[in-house]
Amino acid sequence: MSINKRSIIILSSILVLLAIPFVAMQFSPNVKWSLFDFIGAGIFLLATGFSIDFVARKTKSPKKRFLAILAILILFLLVWIELAVGLFGSPFAGS
After folding, report:
1. pLDDT attached to residue 83
2. Can you give 38-88 as a three-state secondary structure string?
3. What is the mean pLDDT of residues 73-78?
């Protein structure tokens, strides 16, 4: 099994992003992530990263590629915000 360079970059980026709250937990009592939080965030970031990679590889038109990646990022941010603070008050946010 061969892992390409893009996959390594995506996985490394996810590890760096997940290291931020892990390090913050060591210095602040206000950051309290459980193992479930890290697993959920990791899966969510993996799905987003590989979705963007898929669109970047499969879409020929630069305009369509840009719009598809923008849509993925907007969806990512909306779901992340909802899970973090319950902006829309859905049951997923614990509201």
Report:
1. 81
2. HHHHHHHHHHHHHHHHHHHHHCCCHHHHHHHHHHHHHHHHHHHHHHHHCCC
3. 93
